[in-house]
Amino acid sequence: MKALAPGFLIAMPQLQDPTFRQSVILMVEHNDEGAMGIVINRTSELTFGELAKNQDLSIARSRERELVYVGGPVDPSRGFVFHNSTHVRERNELLPGLFLSVTTDALEPLLVDESATLRFCLGYAGWGAGQLERELREGSWLFSEASREAVLVTEPAKVWETVIQAMGISPGRLVTTGGLN
Asked: Global pTM?
């Protein structure tokens, strides 16, 4: 199977686990040993202001009420920040104009920079060797190309539907037994 990173995993309707129901996961790693991705459309109750205060980080006043995202159930204290800033030294370009940073040293300048667009996620989703491939065969997930806009711009509540529509599929045509109606 071709590497799925970077790409989107889109939860099918039969995936009712509240952790992944209607989730869109940006895959950041996929190889023979397993896979790792980060949910990009599940907000938490935690705000950037609270996070900055708890971590003793500087923050622009305009960012204080922005929400932190739940990136997945694994290691929920580990942070991942998707952003569009070329001014951050520690960054890995996933797609043109979409970077991933994983250090507090990268997060603080982004919290202060009001011109940067970012999505900060705590935790990730992980799969052991062959597990994700099996879930794809079983019809739990759809796969599509990832887009910077869906990660950084699209309103979280609309990401699932928007990504499916970008594939040329009407979300209403997805059936809970897997596949299209």
From this structure: 0.93
